[in-house]
Amino acid sequence: MAASENSTAEWESQYLHVLSAFLAMEPVGSVIALARECNGGSITDGAQRFLWEICVKAAASGNGSYAKKLLKKLINEVEVENGEVLDELYEEYALYMSTSKEDILAKENIRITKFISFLFPEGSYKHPSCPLSRKLVIHLQCSLNMLEGGTGCSIWPSSLFLSEFVLSFPELFANKSCFEVGSGVGMVGICLAHVKAKKVILTDGDLLTLSNMRLNLERNHLNYDDELLNQTGEAQSTRIKCMHLPWETASESELSKYCPDIILGADVIYDPSCLPHLLRVLVALLRKPTKRDNGSLKTEDNRDAQQGCSPKVAYIASVIRNADTFNAFLTLVDQMDLSITDVTAELTPRFELLPYMHSYDRSSVRLFSISSR
Q1: Which residue, 30, 73, 200, 267, has fewest beta-carbon neighbours within 10 Å?
Q2: Which residue pairs, CB below 8 angstroms and at least 24 apart, start in 61-65?
Q3: Is there a domain that residue 95 lies in?
Q4: Looking at the whole model, is its pTM more than 0.85?
Q5: CATH number at residue 173
Q6: Cβ–Cβ < 8 Å for 241, 212
Q7: Average pLDDT, rounded, for the chain
Q8: Are residues 168 and 262 in the same domain?
């Protein structure tokens, strides 16, 4: 049994990027391309068997439509090269073909589970955020597609970039109070908890997105009420709060309670009509706390006040899809007496933690720091 387990471990090590790409539901062509890279450009029997036994069979309890696409693409590519397709692949594909699309979607409940694996490279063992296994896997329930679940339940490039940023520079976030606007699936917040942020406040304006985010926290053994234990059995060190925050109705008095050290946002510069509300939220969060008549600071946590709570910076990661929208954002930043700096070159993540993710173009994302003047 031990020999078999060792063999499986070696197998998974050889095809680590293939497995990571499959679990993250990368385009099936990318998954097969990675399998080729492991075998000098060919789809060997070993690669076929790994994709079937480890990947496709793992999808038996969900994500069946994705597994079906992978099988179809894999069989087609082997046949085109006049290779020999494993009988098990034909048999597995026949089972999927006999299952209707409606049955598959009903089983998946219009939601899919993606496992995003942040893979730390050789030589990063001593890095504060590097797990002992050199792999941090985050479980995320997402929309099957944006039409079904909305943009808030999808994983966007800038949230991947911001997550890499947090994991690469843990010293910026450790023991800090962090507030994220438009938290979506909650991936950045989970990374903040991993690097031991003192407090993490996750917000979104959509109630369904907020409910999905809470589920993702629980799936990753994090509790926003500080009642559960994490998977190591130790008390959770990061205090996490999930909050409904529509930008257009958020009041300054409500926001002034939180006094975060760092504000974060991923792909929040997208709708010109939302920008004034977003900037108003950022201004309120970046403003220094005011004093009550008795001299105490107006903050959510008196302990923060006693430590001299003072908001410092907002980090906004964004893909600039529309130049006019981005220029409108810059104009509002200036009008609201804020300073903005492109820090992409300075703070590009130190490690490429998602090397298997061909669909993610890190170079398309820019990182900006925003502060009060």
Answers
A1: 73
A2: 62/107, 62/108, 62/112, 62/113, 63/25, 63/108, 63/112, 63/113, 64/96, 64/99, 64/104, 64/107, 64/108, 65/101, 65/104, 65/105, 65/108
A3: yes
A4: yes
A5: 3.40.50.150
A6: no
A7: 85
A8: yes
